[in-house]
Write a structure and sequence with these properties.
It is built from 6 helices and 8 strands, in the order ααβαββαβαββββα. With 239 residues, it is an alpha+beta fold.
């Protein structure tokens, strides 16, 4: 069955994209744990925005008055007005990912699958956070697969990742597509490091590709996006 558009009618009127994004990492994890060698294990990780919890009971039990506070530091110090005070929102993009660990190396993170959400592509700050996260993992020797099915935003985060090293992917031409899949790794070659990528343009109505998921320099397993995608659609009764 082909790739659907989860962000526009008619499907968006019937099913919420968040349900699909929430389940897909789990089923990718199930699939990977069936084929990974015993030393590796996959785990899903889903974070929807940022959550900060405050223990109200603890706050209420404390004396929050300022009358019993003792000044600290230079008594001559005078608190001035802030240089900037504006209303704003912190970047709270969602994360849908699968992480693969090497249990023989103290659960060292060796690979990550990043499923792009609309909030990852929403604002320049959000895109920068996502790209910086991928770059940081690559520098630590973690292979990264990026899967983007978001049709409501045309930004290509994989292309922006390549821009950081002054490169572009000839597979995409002059206009990087809005939906795509790519596997990336940064590996040593002699005294230098080489960024290697395997990229695919996704199309609504076409099957998804299989990406190489690199667990070591000379070892990869297939990341069958089509099989796990279809399993997720069946589980959610998406036709």
């Amino acid at each position: 069955m082909p790739l659907r558009d989860h962000f526009h009618p008619p499907l968006s009127n019937q099913k919420n994209w968040e349900g699909f994004h929430g389940l897909w990492p789990g089923l990718i994890t199930v699939h990977l744990n069936q084929i990974l060698p015993s030393r590796y294990e996959a785990e899903p990780s889903v974070h929807v925005g940022s959550e900060v919890e405050i223990d109200v009971a603890t706050l209420e039990s404390e004396d929050l008055s300022t009358s019993n506070l003792t000044p600290i530091g230079d008594p001559a110090f005078e608190l001035s007005l802030p240089s900037l005070a504006v209303e704003t929102d912190l970047v709270t993009e969602s994360e849908y990912e699968v992480r693969i660990f090497d249990t023989r190396r103290n659960r060292r993170l060796v690979a990550a699958i990043e499923i792009v959400s609309p909030s990852n592509k929403d604002r320049p700050q959000s895109r920068q956070v996502f790209v910086a996260k991928c770059q940081a993992m690559l520098k630590k020797g973690v292979s990264v697969a990026i899967v983007d099915l978001v049709t409501v935003k045309d930004f290509n985060l994989y292309a922006e990742l390549l821009e950081l090293v002054g490169q572009s992917d000839p597979t995409f031409g002059t206009e990087p597509p809005g939906i795509y899949a790519a596997a990336c790794r940064w590996i040593p070659r002699g005294r230098k490091h080489v960024l290697e990528t395997w990229s695919f343009v996704l199309q609504i109505g076409r099957p998804l590709p299989t990406l190489p998921l690199w667990l070591a320099e000379n070892f990869a397993v297939p990341l069958d996006l089509e099989a796990t995608y279809e399993e997720t659609c069946r589980a959610l009764r998406i036709t």
